[in-house]
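Open question from group meeting: does this chain pack into something compact, or does most of it stay loose? Before anyone orders reagents, we agreed to write out a predicted structure and look at it together. Recording both the input and the output here so the notebook holds the full record.
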Amino acid sequence: MEFINLFPKFPKDSIIDESNQCVSCGLCLPHCPTYRLLKSEADSPRGRIALMNGVANGYIPLNARFIQHMDRCLTCRACEAVCPNHVRYGHLMDEARALIADQSKSFVTSQKPGTRAVLERLLLTRPARLDRLRGLFYFMQRRGLLQWLRKLNSFEKNKLLKFIVQLPLVKFPYAADVNNKHAIRNIWKEVYPAQGKKRGEVGLFLGCVARITDVATLNSSIYVLNRLGYTVYVPPHQTCCGAIHQHSGAPKMAAALAQQNKSVFSEAAVSAIISTASGCGAQLLESGVGDGHGSSAKSVYAGNKRVLSSIADISQFLVAAEGWEDVEISPLPQKILVHDPCSLRNVLCKQRYPYELISRIPDVQVAPVAGNDQCCGAAGTYFIDQPEIAGMLLDDKISTLAESGARYLVTSNIGCSMHIANGLYEKKIPIEVLHPVTLLARQMGLEL
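Structure tokens returned:
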């Protein structure tokens, strides 16, 4: 039976051209988390590429079964990192999901939960609104209102709401007031001046969810950068990186967000745009936010050596930064485990930098988490959309961590951090999960 091809020309041709680069060698299979769990060819990179090609050519239908196999992909891109033919699997998956979003109106498919849809529409595209909610969220946490709401059946059954209830206590933007360490701000300053000898100017990307859930990392980044001699600019009109939209079939919205970020950071004229979340950093880089950012944006130099592009992960930037001789770092005689987020390992290929950064702390013992080449299951909103598979992947990580004997786990992506911390919390395992720069700032004297 021949199926009618409903696809627009460009996405269809793009999928066909890229999927034809796959030679079905199977080298990707052992690196794919869903294939390892489900043992299904249709839930492997090779199988999904074949399905995409079949749908784009009109050989198989775009139906609920096809969508299920696409939805199960974490887009961890471990397959892409090992592909001998350099198939752009991440690009393929984005194109396939864009087609699904466009064509699935005629099919009965799983829709986003209402709560998540509202959050994406009202908050993620306008993340400054999250800053206004910080005080209310903090008040509800301190009064125990969120824990009370958790007792309601509707909250317990809703994965996203349950996750929100278990978030750590909200923190506030760094005041940078050396005369008053207890000063509190509810909005970010536009400029945080360097302390001591000035060595450069950088921009800080805030993200969206991190404005509430990972203020500690953002504060720590400003604190460390300032003390190394870097002035930090925080453009107030920056927005979400667009990764959630890009990977859920809304490339036009992702492009619009990228354009807004490109515009606001170009006005700052900084030498580098710093990202504290590797997922955001990967999206900013691949969406071209740093392109055309000014003559100094393409590279940052340490001495005469080129070390950075215009989009830089905070650990990457700090490892190459100058000024370390001017700061004191307290020893920490503890074992520190390092988790490699998929976006940092497979897309940015910068996984070595967190290890090097943490090694600046005297007396630490730095070690990788066993199985670092496998996704933890967070994968953006995957843990909400595919909780069963995400839970299995998380269980593997939690079991490994429980046997490690470590007190600290550092990871460079907010989604991974919250997902793993939530798993440890539910299992009552006393391991603190934090960003590498947060641990470093703490040893440098920052009180969060």
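Observations to bring back to the group:
The longest strand covers residues 200-205.
The longest helix spans residues 251-268.
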